[in-house]
Design goal:
Length: 214
């Protein structure tokens, strides 16, 4: 539940802050851009409020009753990030297989949400998202330049290195992936901040109509 609250509130506030800053700078030079930014702030805040209410309802009742974001909700997530001023280029190959388990879909969504939120907060350029679907797993990469590049790793160091202080969000990404048998690495590769994740899965078998429990 704490991870869900962090993901929902953290992502939405990052979008709102970026839009508010943009509206402040554009108010005089481009009033229409300021109005568009305020519209995005309103939409994002309302969506976040609805999500928080769902999370609170889960606390009051049984967890898991409310609908959770799935793979078909990713386009809406990309649109929020683009509205915050970042270009998001997405490369998916091939299309996702049918019947990816709901828990895996939720983990993929939340990991990408956190990666994109970090790009809004700390990035300094466009975001590249690559998804490579295999019959039994997804390989996911999300990368973006950062505002203050760190020194590159030594020649004998691992390609991905953690920053000096690993944030709660990165820990949350790793925990989410681990819950479905996956893994997340995050760190600098050259001048890019890269999140690399793997999500194994066994496709859910559709239940035949009219079948009875035995």
């Amino acid at each position: 539940m704490a991870r869900d609250m962090h993901d929902v509130v953290g992502h939405s506030l990052a979008v709102i802050i970026a839009q508010a800053d943009g509206a402040r700078y554009a108010a005089d030079a481009d009033p229409q851009a300021g109005k568009d930014a305020l519209a995005t702030i309103s939409t994002t805040a309302r969506s976040a409020l609805a999500d928080v209410r769902l999370l609170l309802a889960q606390l009051r009742h049984s967890e898991g009753m409310a609908p959770q974001p799935m793979l078909n909700d990713l386009e809406s997530l990309y649109s929020q990030v683009r509205a915050a001023g970042l270009a998001v280029r997405v490369d998916v190959e091939p299309m996702p297989p049918a019947n990816v388990p709901a828990a895996v879909q939720l983990a993929i969504y939340r990991v990408l949400q956190e990666a994109l939120t970090n790009a809004i907060r700390h990035g300094n350029g466009d975001v590249e998202v690559t998804m490579r679907w295999l019959p039994d797993r997804l390989h996911l990469w999300a990368s973006n330049p950062v505002a203050e590049p760190v020194d590159p790793p030594a020649a004998d160091a691992a390609p991905l290195t953690d920053p000096a202080g690993v944030s709660h969000g990165i820990v949350g990404m790793r925990e989410r992936a681990r819950l479905v048998g996956g893994a997340v690495e995050a760190g600098m590769v050259g001048e890019l901040w890269v999140v690399r994740a793997t999500f194994p899965f066994a496709a859910e078998e559709p239940q035949p109509h009219g079948s009875a429990a035995r």
